[in-house]
Amino acid sequence: MKKILSFLYQYPFFLFLLFLVVAYLPVLLPYFHLKNDLITQNLPTRFVFSEGLSSGFEPFWNPYLHYGSPQYGDMNNGFWNPVQWFIGSTFGYNIYTITFEELFYILIGGWGVYKVAREFYSKDVAILAGLVYMCCGYLTGHLQYLCWITGTGYFPFVLLYFIRVNKTPIIKNFLLGGISVFLFVASTHPGLIIGAAYFFPFLYL
Length: 205
What we know:
The chain is mainly α and 205 residues long. The chain contains eleven helices and two strands.
């Protein structure tokens, strides 16, 4: 047992992964299905997206929504999110893949908060901060709103590289910061983007 705990402490990413499985076990059980917007809006649009890719068509247009609608213009879609393109072009979208996608954002969000906290605090405090973030009320209360969860996965990395760029302005930090901003803006709801636009000027000041 001590060896396992030592391993998890030495490699905390595996601790975060184990914590995700335990904390969100009900979401992973066969009889549990996420509901509301995720089922009635996010899954259908992503299913059309993945079916278009598997059929050899560019998935820019959804003919089944509002007599036809541009998928890239849907605020809830996260059309340019690379994770969506990866799933859509490989496994395809169904209730299981969209559930795993959502849990993926929770995992990387917790890991991102851990990395941010490590800039200021000890490893123990950083681990605790990351685990608390993964189970915060915002995340557990928004499981049915995928486009809000995606932002919580990428935002900690935007914050991380904002801090690192100001501490050490080197090309690597600017490059990774730019990628983080792209992933955040390309995947989340505009409400979180607007919130970030207010947050960072005040943080800088």
